[in-house]
Amino acid sequence: MAKELPKLKTRITELLGIEHPIIQGGMAWVADHNLVVPVSEAGGLGVIGAGSMTPSQLVGEIMAVRAGTSKPFAVNVPMTRPDAAKLIRICLEQDVKIVFTSAGNPAVFTPQLKEKGVTVIHVVSSVRHALKAERAGVDAVVAEGWEAGGHVSREETCTLTLVPQVVDALQIPVIAAGGIADARGFVAALALGAEAVQIGTRFAATVEANCSIYYKNAIVRAEDAATVVVTRSLQPTRVIRNAFAEQLLRAEQRGVQEPQLRDMLGEGRSRLGIVDGDLSEGLLEAGQSAGLVKALRTVELIFEEFLNGYREVLKRLEGLQQRR
Amino acid sequence: MAKELPKLKTRITELLGIEHPIIQGGMAWVADHNLVVPVSEAGGLGVIGAGSMTPSQLVGEIMAVRAGTSKPFAVNVPMTRPDAAKLIRICLEQDVKIVFTSAGNPAVFTPQLKEKGVTVIHVVSSVRHALKAERAGVDAVVAEGWEAGGHVSREETCTLTLVPQVVDALQIPVIAAGGIADARGFVAALALGAEAVQIGTRFAATVEANCSIYYKNAIVRAEDAATVVVTRSLQPTRVIRNAFAEQLLRAEQRGVQEPQLRDMLGEGRSRLGIVDGDLSEGLLEAGQSAGLVKALRTVELIFEEFLNGYREVLKRLEGLQQRR
């Protein structure tokens, strides 16, 4: 990068060997090499979202990232995938240095990953699961609040209250996720005790991300109350409210139970929304921070905004103090 | 107070004539003169919660507050009260200088209050309502996130994403509420652009608050996932999960509709929980920040923690910056 940005040093930047405590969320259907390379090149951590990839696609994406950057990157493996073990094996075979695991028991893959020297980070949304991850030997956790896009927790604990409680409970460093899209949220997360932030929605609405421009524009147009959590009884998922989301909400309000809800949902709704850009029938996974995203940006510009903004916000907070 | 605490100056401290940008939430069944006096004496803004008071009780409480402090205080009038106009008239008759209105149309009472020179603050949970309040002529808004205790919004927008969007949309100053219980959340809220915080749950679990010790202890014992939103289809309300809350949740999951739900709810459940301390059959209104409350505190100690903590958190955030 041309410009030298102010740097922040935390246990997470040290652990991962990155310049800035900014991690890009491994979003299904969004986080491929097109996004991962510029994030890692900018000095953050790009994360491949394996959740929506076949095993051979994952191999290809790892190779494509390596072709684009020599800086650190990671792979996110959601343990809800029936073939999660295969994706983990690929990470090991391809000598991936950092793996994020999510939505499952951290004790399943952590030992074999740690044995091979891989840095393991587990995504949690409660203190109980955070403690479990620490006991399983992970190096850090992502504490993801209910504001986040896509799959969210049943506990519904928000970032503002989750992060400090996880920080208090653990010895290992904590990455804050959910609801952060600008320098103000970045400073807020670090004030809460996080040592890095994981950013999803803001990075989906970038020039570089390889998802539909219609989906990106839906994020840009989203206002503060644009998102809603659907399929609470199956797997709570935060999406931008659209015709299909309304249909799911009405069904749930009528007390429609799991099998019928699963039928309604069918397969491939997220792909339909995110990749194909079907704004009425697809699921438009996005966090509450969509309301803060007012324009498409390049990845580089987002780093500039976060890091220059950090200094500006701190200066403002210092300025509130009255000198005597 | 004996000790001189560091002071922060914002448009809210100027507007209200208070020393610290810390406002105590006007909680029904909790916020009477026992709590309001020490908060105002500590240099924050104590707020009488008229929501659970008869008109004559409100008169008595205003007099009791004036007997205890000569510093600024306010009254919160929830517009859901059928006799809200009467409560507003009492505020005018008693020459109350600051009135908070909530849960209703800000255009209804603002003109008559402003005409008498009263400072008016309206509680909002969306950008749309914030703009409406500003247009109605209020002096400031409380932007209350979904983490908050008691009545919460249908939009479910959390503090971390709500506050910066309301700040961006308005000219008047914004007070952040929901999910804040310590210095970390205090700094986070000001980083987001708020010019003060409104604190509910943390002030309910004080030595001074005149609510049941059983209810206070339920807050202290609460863990991160302790609260839940019940009666989403009537009036979403965040409470600590207990036997009665579970019963409501099960009914809603079965698709039980409004009239039966209203029957189940009956009258006086919040009073039963908060005043009488019935931990299984009462509604224990509390915010997600209950998980951060680990001990009963005096009001004075909370002010010390927030204000000394502000400096410590800022110092930590400054320390992350790498010198070249």
CATH fold group of the largest domain in chain A: TIM Barrel
Biggest interchain interface, per-side counts: A-B, 59 and 59 residues
Report the biggest beta sheet of chain A as strand number plus sense, adding barrel if it closes. Answer: 8 strands, parallel
Count the helices of chain A. How many?
A: 14
Radius of gyration of chain A: 19 Å
Strand line-up of the largest beta sheet of chain A? 1-9-8-6-5-4-3-2
Spans where pLDDT lies below 50 across 5 or more residues of chain A: none
Level-2 CATH architecture of the largest domain in chain A: Alpha-Beta Barrel
* Average predicted local confidence, pLDDT of chain A: 96
Measured between the Cα atoms of the first and last residue of chain A, the distance is 43 Å
> Quick one: CATH class of the largest domain in chain A?
Alpha Beta
- By oligomeric state, this entry counts as homodimer
Q: Tell me the name of the CATH homologous superfamily of the largest domain in chain A.
A: Aldolase class I
- Envelope shape of chain A: globular
Order of helices and strands of chain A: HEHEHEHEHEHEEHEHEHHEEHHHH
Strand element count of chain A? 11
Structural class of chain A: alpha/beta
What is the number of independent domains of chain A? 2
Beta strand % of chain A:
5-15%
